[in-house]
């Protein structure tokens, strides 16, 4: 009875951080009937029928119908051509035994049906909302008591309701691609010139990157090779664990380059290491640059991220007892302290995943330990600690996806891609403020940000936009296999014991290997070599 896990995940992504419901805005209808007393069919005309449609899918196994009955927010997560799932008679009987306790409707536009599952001894909050005149599924949550469901309802209903106008804006396609093309032609610059210009003018330039993307790191390598870079920039902050700063200092100060020191840092980044070859090559280029500079002109490389010191733990208890913290908060702290303590006139470059860089006040995601307050992104916090004018954030044209690379969609229904194509598909960068790109609703980061009313427009989140190449031509991840020695693979397995992982059957991001060895990891990535980063059907979808 746990086939609903995707819906529960959608709910966790969809709802974040709202206040209490005005009790005058909702009404409760007591029902207290078995599900078997209702007709099960697909009908989205009312909140109750929307709920019954969900249970019909669970009872029948017609998985393709999830796409038809669910909010636009979940569209990329469901397959409209999914095969039917076999449902046993015992499971069907258990579904029909659910007790429909009550229904709560908020402002006639968001609703919850509270049900009890006797087989699992749990209550469920089944949520729906009104989109384009029909009541669509917007996820569910589990609780042990009916009272716990009622206590949580204000959060779910208010948040769900607030998404309705945002979804309407996101669904609406731009009216005229020509204005986007014209803006590019009149205001576009080369990406190298654009980044160097920002570094010459702004105290902190945040380059929002997309991990393991070769073309992005190639741009940054070109930037640092330009003589103007050392004139304008004194520090490069990296999204790597700050507790490894002594190792980075040793690497940068070495009379000869020792790449193994970078690999040491990468092996301490996340439980299974960090394998971004472009970042590795960027750091070796920085060493080459520094080796030729006098002491007063050398570029400092500061590691800003918070990661647990995985190699130091011997047991799960040691890991659990180690003080954990919000990564965005830590990065902002490290950067603020260094910048304010630095003398001289040179500015600072912060290279970080684009999900840590946006300026709006949507809380960060995938960066906060369980039970702690979710902080704003590092970019938003740095704006608060310095000023909006001193912090310049850059977004690179990619696709919208979640933190694990799923739920891929083209930005703004593919209109941005079409504009770049009509402008010649040449690398280009431009300011977002005052542009048609900047005025569009922000859908450049995954669903946890995309549908939040606080997200606003592209210009509310980033200052600059960079297009590097047509996405349909982009190669798959640019990976660094050098970190996967026999010793490190055994270390990954050791860490798995205190993280509850199963490394011999599951690798990172869903990639499967029968046995984890350096050879199987290499063969896994070799099998992906030469493939495109994005599925071809993504670009067919954009033509709709």
Description:
Strand 4 (122-131) and strand 5 form a beta hairpin. The chain has 22 helices and 14 strands. The strands form 3 sheets. Strands 8-7-9-6-10-14-13 form a 7-stranded mixed β-sheet, with helices on both faces. The chain is globular. With 544 residues, it is α/β, with parallel strands linked by helices. The chain is 40% helix and 17% strand. Residues 1-22 have low confidence and may be disordered.
Q: What spatial form do the alpha-carbon principal axes imply?
A: globular
How many DSSP E strands? 14
Report mean pLDDT, rounded to a whole number: 90
**Backbone structural class:** alpha/beta
The separation of the N and C termini measures 36 Å
User: Which strand order does the major sheet show?
Assistant: 8-7-9-6-10-14-13
Give unreliable regions as ranges: 1-22
How are the secondary structure elements laid out?
Blueprint: H1 5-14, E1 26-34, H2 47-60, H3 65-69, H4 89-96, E2 99-106, E3 110-117, E4 122-131, E5 134-143, H5 146-171, H6 177-187, H7 191-201, E6 204-209, H8 214-225, H9 227-232, E7 233-241, H10 245-253, H11 259-267, H12 277-291, E8 300-305, H13 316-321, H14 327-341, E9 347-353, H15 378-385, E10 391-396, E11 399-400, E12 409-410, H16 415-422, E13 428-431, H17 436-439, H18 447-450, H19 458-461, E14 464-467, H20 486-499, H21 518-528, H22 537-541
Parallel strand pairs: 6-9, 6-10, 7-8, 7-9, 10-14
Antiparallel strand pairs: 1-2, 2-3, 3-4, 4-5, 11-12, 13-14
